[in-house]
Design a protein that fits this description.
single chain; 89 residues; mainly alpha
Length: 89
């Protein structure tokens, strides 16, 4: 699998505060971004994989709703997170 336990723990440690804090909004957004980047690379090689394309669209929607929530809750965290993850909005 492309996303190992260690990689997930590293993402949550960097963005969520600790490796066991998997429920933080920032950590979930970072994890979704990692998955989105992986699926985007997969779709560049497999253009006709429509199931993956659908999964990618759903994942982007989930990330967007979490980003909207974070924007309402704390605008400074939102700005720093999109800058660090290179998300455009």
């Amino acid at each position: 699998m492309y996303l190992t336990k260690e990689k997930k723990a590293e993402i949550f440690k960097k963005f969520g505060g600790s490796d066991s804090n998997t429920g933080s909004t920032e950590g979930q957004i970072a994890l979704f971004t990692e998955r989105i980047n992986h699926l985007t690379g997969h779709l560049k090689n497999n253009q006709k994989d429509y199931n993956t394309e659908r999964s990618l669209v759903r994942l982007v929607g989930k990330r967007r709703s979490l980003l909207d929530y974070l924007k309402k809750k704390d605008i400074e965290k939102y700005r720093s997170l999109i800058k660090e993850l290179n998300i455009r909005k």
